Amino acid sequence: MQDIVVLAAKLKKEREAIGLSQGALAKALGLSSEYISLLEAGKRTPSFVTLNKIAAYLNKDISYFFKEKEGAFNILFRAEGLDERAKESLKKFRRYCDEYLHLETVTGRKLELGPLYTNTSPDRMADEERRRLNLGSEPIRNIFTLCETNGCRILRLPMPEDSKVSGVFIYLEEKEAAFALVNNAQSIGRQAFNTAHEYCHYLKDRWEGPVIDNPDVFIDEYVSLYHPREQFAQTFAARFLMPPAKVQEIIEKDCHSPGVNFDQVLYLKRYFGVSTLAMLRTLRDLGYVSKAQFEEFRKAEPARREKELFGNLIDEDEEKGSGAVSGLSRSLKKGKRRAILSDRFKLLRDEAAKMKKRKILKR
Q: 231: helix, coil or strand?
């Protein structure tokens, strides 16, 4: 059954990658569009002759459609640049994944996978996903829970400072389960953005093997040096978290000039629950902040001004260019941040414990 699912997903992915409709592919192969539809739905298994014809047309080896992949975590641990401390953290992540899936089995509460997007732009994908989830244009108040309820399980775990790991996405094909690790030794705004970034990998790249995101993929000057999927995920995350229509609506209501000043940037970043730098990038891309203003605001001290204005800090911005070093920043540097288990994981753990207790009492 798993082979059929893999074949179906890969066939659809390759067809859409070359921009063909089901009907066009069917015509090219001398098959019916209904048959191609059944193949992509995993409801029909092609004969060897038919599969060979499909593979030849798509310029793939026939084994591509059934090839057994190496275990995702084995691939992950071989990633270049991972030191022993980072590997120890990833081992914790693996144990979390195993325990999470065990709890789902015990409680009978397995998550369903979300859709797989192909052949689309990051902006369109973000808009379609918002519509699918009935989010409108309002801010996402808890991106961590939102990802979980839509099939991507989250662990927020502090990674060693020199590990260069901002986030990790992994899809366990044999379990049909997706997980993301988010480095919570970062500001909460960065964590939110990183989570949306990993959510994009879940929705679009889950069949491409595990992904380790270096913090550099979140920096304009460096993201182009990485796989194109990283720029895609960056654009998706910004659009998903900060819908342009909502940004425009707030600016038109509260700002009385063509652009925005630094205080208004801080107000907007608090509203959308992102980092100052993420908000600045969006405002720059929408034309509300000039390139010169972007560089000026980037060098400011957001935490200090935010506390002066609003009396409390939603997020301690530790991005490049920020001169602020807050109490949270200091505590992170001292290694006081601990893993944050997801609310759903805790709920399942409690439910499993109660089930075990009831079973013991019945004996």
A: helix
Full residue range of the structural domain in which residue 314 is found: 244-324
Query: What's the confidence (pLDDT) of residue 69?
Result: 59
Question: In this structure, are 221 and 279 located in the same domain?
Answer: no
Spatial separation of the C-alpha atoms in residues 268 and 140, rounded to whole Å: 13
| Domain assignment present for 357 | no
**Tally of helices (H runs) and strands (E runs) in the chain:** 18, 5
At 3 the pLDDT is: 65
Averages of pLDDT over runs of 10 residues in the chain (363 residues) are 72 86 91 90 83 84 66 80 87 96 96 91 97 95 95 94 88 92 92 96 89 84 82 95 95 78 93 93 93 92 89 58 34 60 96 89 72
Domain contains 330: no
Token pair of 165 as six digits: 């790991």
Q: Look up residue 216 and give its DSSP letter.
A: G
Distance of CA 207 to the CA centre of its chain: 14
What is 253-311 written as a DSSP string? HH--SSS--HHHHHHHHHHHT--HHHHHHHHHHTTSS-HHHHHHHHTS-HHHHHHHHHS
The whole-number pLDDT of residue 99 equals 97
The span from the CA of 140 to the CA of 286, in Å, is 20
Rounded to whole angstroms, the Cα distance separating 200 from 205 reads 8
Q: Are 39 and 31 in contact (CB under 8 A)?
A: no
